[in-house]
Design a protein that fits this description.
By secondary structure, the protein is α+β, with helices and mostly antiparallel strands. Helices cover 40% and strands 21% of the residues. A five-stranded mixed β-sheet has the order 5-6-1-7-8. The chain is globular and about 60 Å long.
Length: 407
């Protein structure tokens, strides 16, 4: 089906972690609060409440800076299990309207309601009905902004235009008007670095991006140039696939990240934690019967700048050692000074196990992992650790960036 004939909802929960806590605790309602990690001294504001945002607090702001900007802010430790539970509950509400639900993050989902809504009037009525269900079943303090558009890219942009608790409808003929009212980096997929590169080419808005020669975009950005060209016209190269009801919550990636107890430039410390994270990711993938062909490794520095890159395997894997080796090869050439956070994620998932190795040592390791996985399934994920990761102690944390995710 043509993208312009589709009707996509993007539903984004407003100040999600903070709103959940305000719903659960009446004392926090109407007050500026910031959801942090367990160790507040070295944490960031994972989510600021609507009240805190109005006073200048931003997501990923350090807690000391948040206190400086907003002295009355209440810093509150996050509860990942609570947010995960609410996430499953609101996705279950969405699935009662359509089987075509695609969770995008812990607080966002896409819904393809083309068949159920039939037209944009029906889509608007459905969005209002979903909003009523959210209020009834989750509480009046947990609100969502909803965007309705012909594809995921435009639906997400539409939901961002009116917050909190907004509802924005963008019909196919209104897509270019929406884009031309927005900044380049308002669009999901165009970050600050891409924006800077576009600016260097003389492109500062979507109209200029549409008029820029496609061959020149490809010369500068390679295959991503084609995506930028289509995005400037409000089109998506890849449309939202139809998802069966039983598969609607299948993850698209697995990842873990961790804020270190202290900023460090010691590669040995970083390797210990990265290895531990890789083992956690590998275990969850094997548990779910999937392997991955792509690894992304990333770090955040003391000044809150970040760096991340990805590599692709020739053969998919769910082995923590291979995940670690690839991730460390990505990070090793980087100047790893004053690292605050480290993490990795996997994508390009394949269902089923890998082919048996031709090498006896690798086959033996696979058998050992299988036995260890059975122990973890029975006694919990902390039942064993590699000697190389004994020095890496992971304490419970929560934030939009640190949330141990299946997306």
């Amino acid at each position: 089906m043509d993208n312009t004939a589709r009707i996509i909802l993007h539903i984004d929960m407003n100040s999600y972690f903070a709103s959940v806590e305000q719903q659960a605790n009446p004392f926090l309602r109407g007050k500026p609060i910031g959801i942090t990690g367990k160790s507040q001294e070295r944490s960031i504001v994972a989510t600021a409440s609507i009240e805190a945002k109005r006073l200048g607090v931003k997501t990923a702001m350090s807690t000391w800076e948040a206190k400086k900007v907003c002295p009355p802010i209440i810093l509150y430790p996050g509860d990942p299990e609570k947010y995960s539970d609410i996430m499953h509950r609101f996705n279950a509400i969405y699935e009662s309207f359509t089987p075509n639900v695609e969770p995008f993050s812990v607080d966002e989902s896409f819904l393809d309601i083309t068949e159920e809504a039939e037209d944009y009037f029906g889509a608007t009525c459905m969005a209002q009905a979903i909003r009523s269900r959210l209020r009834e079943e989750l509480g009046e303090h947990i609100t969502a902004s909803i965007g309705i558009a012909p594809n995921k890219l435009m639906a997400k942009l539409a939901s961002e235009t009116v917050k909190p608790n907004g509802l924005t409808v963008v019909r196919p003929h209104e897509v270019l008007n929406l884009l031309d009212r927005c900044e380049l980096n308002d669009l999901c997929g165009i970050g600050s670095r891409i924006k800077e590169r576009l600016n260097a080419l003389g492109i500062s808005n979507f109209k200029q991006l549409r008029e820029f020669p496609l061959k020149n975009l490809k010369a500068e950005f390679h295959s991503y140039g084609a995506w930028l060209h289509e995005a400037a016209w409000g089109r998506e190269i890849a449309s939202l696939p139809t998802v069966a009801r039983n598969d609607s919550n299948q993850p698209k990636s697995y990842g873990h990240s961790y804020t270190l107890p202290q900023n460090t430039s010691d590669p040995r410390v970083l390797k210990h934690y990265l290895f531990g994270l890789a083992d956690k990711v590998g275990w969850r993938m094997r548990r779910d019967g999937v392997t991955a062909r792509r690894v992304t490794a990333f770090v955040r520095f003391g000044d809150f700048t970040s760096h991340g890159e990805q590599r692709t395997f020739h053969e998919p894997t769910a082995d923590g050692i291979r995940l670690f080796q690839m991730a460390w090869n990505i990070l090793k050439p980087i100047c790893l000074l004053d690292v605050r956070l480290i993490g990795l994620s996997t994508s390009l998932l394949c269902h089923g196990s890998t082919q048996p190795s031709l090498f006896k040592k690798e086959r033996n390791m696979t058998s050992i992992l299988s036995a260890l996985d059975k122990l973890q399934s029975r006694y919990g994920s902390g039942v064993w650790k590699r000697g190389a990761t004994l020095q890496a102690e992971f304490k419970s944390r929560s934030s939009g960036f640190h949330f141990d995710h299946e997306i």
